[in-house]
Amino acid sequence: MNTFHGKTQALTLAMVTLAASACDTQSTAGPMLTDVAVESVASLQGPPPFVFPDGCCFYDGTTVRTVVPPAASPKRGRDDFYAFPGAAAPGQKAVVAVAPGDQGYHSGQWKFHAVTWIAAPTLLTSAADILQAAQDGLLTITRVEANDFKCPIQP
Question: To which H or E segment does residue 95 belong?
């Protein structure tokens, strides 16, 4: 693996973790990841590493991406964002309920929900899939207001 690719992967992991933790720099992992992100950004050439090359999230069965780093916004989320902090199916990404162009999209003001599987995890790529799995008793959805964050997405 070349140095650029390795640093990009490390920074991508850091940014995903920051998004999932709503950039909480008070958490145990927050400051360390922030330091890694700043060091990596300073040493990279080319596109910004927070442009997730494989997309950050699923939206209605498609992959969407972000081009800006997430910013904490506790208790201010407006659009549903579903994350899988525990067990997840292979290839699982976070899932967003709305995207640019949808009525009700609020420029990436995400209302964080933790999804926890009760049954064996399966790949879910839409909010409707997640809500149906919850209704079927396969998983639980927990609202975590402290993890709300801002991060616009692009289809």
Answer: strand 94-96
